[in-house]
């Protein structure tokens, strides 16, 4: 025995060592020491030790100590316990600690001849290596050798590793070996080779054809493991290649037969799960059938019967059956199935909604949401169950139920659905209020049965969730109220009552302030016919608006609405002096926006008081921005309704200055001046107006033109600037009883005129041209120009487009405003320029048959 006490003193060691063995070779001495070092602890003991750690720091200390011992063992090339050390290292890796220093040890274990070593080595390679590290390429040769090993379990290890982490280079090198194993008669190896082939195809899709011959025979295998993996392989190939998809469609009858055997087969203990034969294989076959039957009538027809069988014969009491039914529903919805089968699928989802499992209910709601557009009526049958899901405690289910409820809204159920959704809006969490309010706004705008119902619904949303609505809700509601002329008194009274109850909902306060400013006189006069009018005085209304200005709850935008409303009431109420005082106070406000408003309003009171009534007149009916665009009929939730097609963004129509000379030839004389399209005057109107100078001495009769000075005084502003005079240009556009007329109809181009009379100035006629094209090609670069006698004044606004669609699929509109102060018969020369099939076309025409109502 060695005296270890003397080892520490070094000098006596040699003597003792020499005396015992008579050898002075120190390497032999160190080897003997290693033989007598304690063996590393087993994996089970390490797990037990780590679990005794009370803190994270204590656990880290244990791991670091064990890692140090493992590193020392690796440095000493200890082959005896390499397998045990790598296994412990993998456990540490699973706990989240670094274990990269064991990568090369895994390769050494793979090269070992022992199965136990190979098993741990391949497991370590799958966990510690990936294709981003070049080390994994060193094991390519070992995997190739093991794929040709005489033991099937070693071959299985190599197949698993290649299928888990093989790079594209490894897959290219070893694809041939995998293909050989795919043809073997060993079921154990065939199923592993099929899964490995899936990985090879994902990494190198061009190798797909290599596996095609071997794949054809896989479905004839009776082993369920081979069948399962072969279906996975077929699915992967069909998803990645349209050619493979077309090739494998002929396998649909065989897949149907396999699925039918699974359903009809009796109890099989090795495949039975909760009374259902191999549900995993059934699910995989249903997924493959879904891919093969999509957009293919023949394949869909071949699988309709078996899908109906699965849907009706599968037990729903267990989760296993629900999984199969869910895959069946998805397959039915994706293929070209019969209508009765689709109704059956939706009824299955409806039964899922009654399941106690939250996951199943969520899956059903998500699936119904995807199918509601294609099978709206079938989903409608389950509306009550879907609405009940709004009361579910689960947040995800409530959100899906809310989205599906809005998708189910149509003109027939709008009242009932809105009642439920508004109740949900009252009680839902704040995270739902914004989406729910937006959905109510959109649904009400589409399907509102009446204007009053629409207004009541929007006001209910504003009072319930006003702080959560979108930014565009306020202008949209103002537009709705403005266009509902008969509801003005009712609306302002409802909003005034809401304002007295709650001023914390800022969008509601803004809409109410605007309406009170516009229709405050109706509120005070008590003209409401829809409900019992309330008695309100002018001072009470002003008190409410002034309270909004000083309230801490009011935002700067709300204060701006309130100040503008007070200013508007100066033309509707008699308390002008009080309003002046309020406005003057805010001329020194620290809010720049509010201060600017107040200063401008003060200037109106002092310098332009004669213009104030005209400037503060009621707003005219507002038109939507896309109202000039063409419309088409679209299908929405099973109902047909007109929809405005968004106009394309077109470049502005430009006209060169030299085109003015072209219109001089309209009548062949020098007394003709054209009107060039103009959207914004660049100079203020001077005496007689800029357009009077622009038109010059135009006379359609060719005789001497009358002098305009006698009919249009020099002090009168141009009609373009009437908005700043005592009478506004358009207080309200009232459609007069003026019949339309066709001004031009030639070469497929038709120009129709419609007329409106501007109030309160009856001397202004508003003419809207509608250009349509009956030819087979679009008319591009379309330009409409017009000239009138000098006794008239004309303004030509920009057109809605410069392309007239073919086959009367749309129209181009353009507005002409004509001032006729002398009430003379209206006459006009027009010039049309466009390009048809690449050829420019230009034509002139004279319009003298205007209806008398348009100029009298």
TrEMBL record:
Annotated membrane topology: Peripheral membrane protein
Domain of life of the organism encoding this protein: Eukaryota
Keyword Protein transport: yes
One GO cellular component, as annotated: AP-1 adaptor complex
InterPro entries linked: Adaptor_Complx_Large_Subunit, AP1_complex_gsu, ARM-like, ARM-type_fold, Clathrin/coatomer_adapt-like_N, Clathrin_a/b/g-adaptin_app_Ig, Clathrin_app_Ig-like_sf, GAE_dom
UniProt entry keywords in alphabetical sequence: Cytoplasmic vesicle, Golgi apparatus, Membrane, Protein transport, Transport
Annotated ranges, domain GAE: 736-851
Positions of transmembrane segments: none
Location in or out of the cell: Cytoplasmic vesicle membrane; Endomembrane system; Golgi apparatus
PROSITE patterns per UniProt: GAE
Recorded family membership: Belongs to the adaptor complexes large subunit family.
Listed name of the protein: AP-1 complex subunit gamma
Organism (species): Perca fluviatilis
């Amino acid at each position: 025995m060695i005296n270890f006490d003397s080892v520490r003193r070094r000098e006596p060691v040699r003597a003792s060592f020499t005396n015992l063995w008579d050898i002075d070779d120190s390497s032999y001495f160190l080897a003997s020491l290693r033989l007598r070092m304690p063996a590393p602890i087993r994996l089970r003991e390490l797990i037990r030790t780590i679990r005794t750690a009370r803190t994270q720091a204590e656990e880290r200390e244990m791991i670091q100590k064990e890692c140090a011992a493992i590193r020392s063992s690796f440095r000493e090339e200890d082959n005896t316990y390499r397998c045990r050390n790598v296994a412990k290292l993998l456990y540490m890796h699973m706990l989240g600690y670094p274990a990269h220093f064991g990568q090369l040890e895994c390769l050494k274990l793979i090269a070992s001849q022992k199965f136990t070593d190979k098993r741990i080595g391949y497991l370590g390679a799958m966990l510690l290596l990936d294709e981003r590290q070049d080390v994994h390429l060193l094991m390519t040769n070992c995997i190739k050798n093991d794929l040709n090993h005489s033991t099937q379990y070693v071959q299985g290890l190599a197949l698993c590793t290649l299928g888990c982490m093989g790079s594209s280079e490894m897959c290219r090198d070893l694809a041939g070996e995998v293909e050989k194993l795919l043809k073997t008669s060993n079921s154990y190896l065939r199923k592993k080779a099929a899964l490995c082939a899936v990985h090879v195809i994902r990494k190198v899709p061009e190798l797909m054809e290599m596996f095609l011959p071997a794949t054809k025979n896989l479905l004839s295998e009776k082993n369920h493991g081979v069948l399962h993996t072969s279906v996975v392989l077929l699915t992967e190939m069909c998803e990645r290649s349209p050619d493979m998809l077309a090739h494998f469609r002929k396998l649909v009858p065989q897949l149907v037969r396999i699925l039918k055997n699974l359903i009809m087969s009796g109890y099989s203990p090795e495949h039975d799960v909760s009374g259902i034969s191999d549900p995993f294989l059934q699910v995989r076959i249903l997924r493959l059938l879904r891919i093969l039957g999509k957009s293919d009538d023949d394949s869909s027809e071949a699988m309709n019967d078996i899908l109906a069988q699965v849907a009706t014969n599968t037990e729903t009491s267990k989760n296993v059956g629900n999984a199969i039914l869910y895959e069946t529903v998805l397959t039915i919805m994706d293929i070209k199935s019969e209508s009765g089968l689709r109704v059956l699928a939706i009824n299955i989802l409806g039964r899922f909604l009654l399941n106690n499992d939250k996951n199943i209910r969520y899956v059903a709601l998500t699936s119904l949401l995807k199918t509601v557009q294609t099978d709206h009526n079938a989903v409608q049958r389950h509306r009550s169950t879907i609405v009940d899901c709004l009361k579910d405690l689960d947040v995800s289910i409530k959100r899906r139920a809310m989205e599906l409820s809005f998708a189910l809204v149509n003109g027939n159920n709008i009242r009932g659905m809105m009642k439920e959704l508004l109740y949900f809006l009252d009680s839902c969490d704040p995270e739902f209020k914004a989406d729910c309010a937006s959905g109510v706004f959109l649904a009400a705008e589409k399907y509102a049965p009446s204007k009053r119902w629409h207004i009541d619904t929007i006001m209910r949303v504003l009072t319930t969730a006003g702080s959560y609505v979108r930014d565009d809700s306020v202008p949209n509601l103002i537009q709705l109220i403005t266009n509902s002329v008969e509801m003005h008194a009712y609306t302002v009274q409802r909003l005034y009552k809401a304002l007295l109850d709650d001023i914390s909902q800022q969008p509601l306060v803004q809409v109410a302030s605007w309406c009170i400013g516009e229709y405050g006189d109706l509120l005070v006069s008590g003209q409401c016919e829809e409900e019992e009018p309330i008695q309100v005085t002018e001072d009470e209304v002003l008190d409410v608006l002034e309270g909004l200005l000083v309230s801490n709850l009011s935002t700067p935008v709300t204060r701006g609405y309130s100040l503008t409303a007070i200013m508007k009431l100066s033309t509707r109420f008699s308390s002008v002096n009080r309003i002046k005082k309020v406005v003057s106070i805010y001329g020194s406000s620290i809010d720049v926006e509010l201060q600017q408003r107040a200063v401008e309003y003060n200037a109106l009171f002092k310098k332009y008081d004669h213009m104030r009534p005209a400037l503060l007149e009621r707003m005219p009916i507002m038109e939507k921005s896309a109202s000039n665009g063409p419309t088409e009929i679209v299908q929405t939730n099973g109902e047909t309704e007109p929809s405005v097609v968004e106009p394309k963004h077109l470049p502005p129509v430009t006209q060169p200055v030299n085109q003015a000379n072209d219109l001089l030839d309209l009548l062949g004389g020098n007394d003709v001046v054209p009107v060039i399209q103009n959207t914004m005057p660049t100079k203020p109107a001077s005496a007689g107006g800029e357009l009077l100078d622009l038109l010059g001495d135009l006379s359609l009769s060719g005789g001497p033109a009358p002098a305009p000075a006698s009919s249009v005084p020099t002090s009168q502003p141009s009609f373009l600037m009437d908005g700043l005079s005592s009478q506004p240009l358009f207080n309200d556009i009232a459609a007069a009883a003026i019949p339309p007329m066709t001004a031009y109809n030639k070469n497929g181009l038709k120009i129709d005129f419609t007329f409106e009379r501007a109030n309160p100035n009856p001397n202004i006629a508003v003419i809207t041209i509608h250009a349509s094209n009956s030819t087979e090609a679009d008319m591009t670069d379309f330009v409409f120009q017009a000239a009138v006698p000098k006794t008239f004044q004309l303004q030509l606004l920009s057109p809605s487009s410069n392309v007239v669609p073919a086959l009367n699929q749309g129209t181009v509109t353009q507005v002409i405003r004509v001032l006729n102060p002398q009430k003379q018969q209206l006459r006009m020369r027009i010039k049309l320029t466009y390009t048809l099939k690449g050829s420019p076309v230009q034509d002139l025409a004279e319009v003298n048959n205007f209806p008398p109502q348009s100029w009298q």
